[in-house]
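Lab meeting prep.
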Amino acid sequence: MEFGDYPTEEKKLNWKPIAIAVVGVVGALVLIFMAIRISNQIDSPEVVQKNIVKQQTEVLKSECDNSSDKDACIKNKTEQVAISSASVDLCKELEAEEADGCILLLAGDLLDPSLCNNISGTTKDKCNDYAYHKLAYKNKDVSACAKILDKNLSKGCADSIDPITAENCDQRNQEESYCNMLKVIDDASKKQDLSLCSVLDEEGQDWCNEMVSMDDPDFDGLETSAEEVYGSDPRNADTDGDGYNDGDEVNAGYNPAGEGRL
């Protein structure tokens, strides 16, 4: 075959698979674009929460329009939303001292002393003590009392949650005289005998008298002063030995120290 005998008709390009590929690529790009648009429109939970807090704040602030002290009203409303929504950022929108006070209240309400790190100066220490004090009482946790910076408040916190008693006084490293006084008071209270308080000094006797709920050594329902009136023995529940409790006899109108009625 001569050179000139080869077919001269051009081969046709098959566009169908190319078109399908192009449409697929374009479709994928559209889907990616739409996904990006949608993701940008969906806010994170944090953003949603901030928007809710913002709306709540604006609503409450609008209630202050007719207040005689609008600034104070707005402050109170802002604190209210900040605490209810646990928003430190909202507290920070207040003036310096007011912001510190708001965070202090929030730290105590949430039992979270770490929030006090948003405060500086002496107010930070107050915030720390306030939060740990509430935390200690909430959980009955003496270790939280130890983190209170004010020594008197810390001691009072610990003593209140885990009181010093006659039994644990020695282990709590208290003075011997104080422990002895507690033991006397405890003994007088258990025996219902105020006379046992007499070994204490004047201050100790006053405290002992207050701590002993009654002065009834024989537990017959009559205090020593009443036994003296009726002539019965304050250390014998059945003075006349008739089988009836002195207190019961008096309540029934009978003589606890002998025969007959009162």
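Slide two material, second protein:
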Amino acid sequence: MPDDSLHQPHDKLFRATFSNPVNAAAFLRHHLGGPLPALVEWDSLALQSGSFIDPQMAGSEADLLFSAKIGGSDALFYILWEHQRSEAPLMGLRLLSYMVRIWKKQAREGGPSTKLAPILPLVLAQDSNRWKTSTCFHELFAFPQGGWEAIRDCTPDFAFTLLELVDLPYEDIRGTPEGILTLRSLKAEPLGELLHSLVWDRGIIAGVATKGVERFFRYVLNADVDREAFKAKVSTQSFTNLTSAAMTLAEQFRQEGRQESEVRSRFQSLLVVLEARFGYIPVGLAEKLTGISDVPTLEKLLKSAAVCRDLEAFTSNC
């Protein structure tokens, strides 16, 4: 999906930064534990198209799927990277549903003799508190004492990797300058520290391209920080051509924020109506809808969703 298709500023920043395999590889190769990072050929990391999250969550979450070579072979290895802003006790079940969708897509495209690619399910947790949720899928089941051993051979099981920003000190976040700036920002937002000196690290920001710095500005201002404090922070940096422009961004972003709020409201209403009338929303349709960012079009589609006879008729109006 395009960068402007996600209506949450956290997911916009995450996706815009880590859709770039260079940023993703630089972070993951340093922060994944165990023997896996040494086996992955990080130069082969490639972003795969499409989203596998549930359609009703498409406006509030972001997922990225990468393929890579592993162990010196041509076999594909997938990294499913999910950005999560709050704890999700059923995360294991959600990830399993995404993994099955990926494998089904691979089987459809490759035919009945296809060997499925292994998948590393990975969650980046942004919230300020440590998760209590287990990363082991089998712990979602209620077994009597000793029951797991008796039934484990016929019950799917896996563990997902959980990377919690709350556990990473600002200085220990590794990667490219843009990746570091993004993750420091995502860590700082729920802590109320977006104007912290370690977020506004001059050495880090100096290595970020103009578009990346502008995204950073947008993210900070979307958090509704003190505008004068923001301008003071900007004035301490060496942004050259960005410095004067940044001083007028606060009002511009405030107006855009109001427009985004209206878009988000219409988008969520549209999903609710479609779900209520037809029981489900195809993934392809959900992706198409999240690419719409103007209020009049969403209002037109909302009226259509309320009166159209079926999903096919609604889709013809998109």
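Talking points for slide two:
Residues 1-7, 55-61 have pLDDT under 50 and may be disordered.
The chain has two domains: 3-143+150-225, 261-316.
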